[in-house]
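Late entry, evening session. Most of the bench is empty. Finally got around to the prediction I had been postponing all week. Sequence below, unchanged from the version circulated by S.P.
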Amino acid sequence: MARLDLGSYGLVESAAEGGAPDALFQLGLIYCAGRDVDLDLVQAHKWFNLAALRGNEDARRYRLEISREMSKKDIASAQKLAREWIATH
């Protein structure tokens, strides 16, 4: 699977606006690792969820992995954010 290897958060965010699964996955990695942004598992889960919905298998695994470290409330928040993103894109 091809991966976008964009070093800048802004470039990845721009690519994700179009719903590209690899760009959505990269945003999940950025938030999961706290690279160029504050570490935020809710945001990471949201982006992994969106990437998984578009067929990215790695995103499915990462989403499951980080969900084990999250509260049910945080997971619900991430899912709400994903639904809101879908509604506007």
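Two things to note before I forget:
Residues 56 and 82 are 15 Å apart (CA to CA).
The helical segments are 9-17, 21-33, 41-53, 57-67, 72-88.
Will write this up properly tomorrow.
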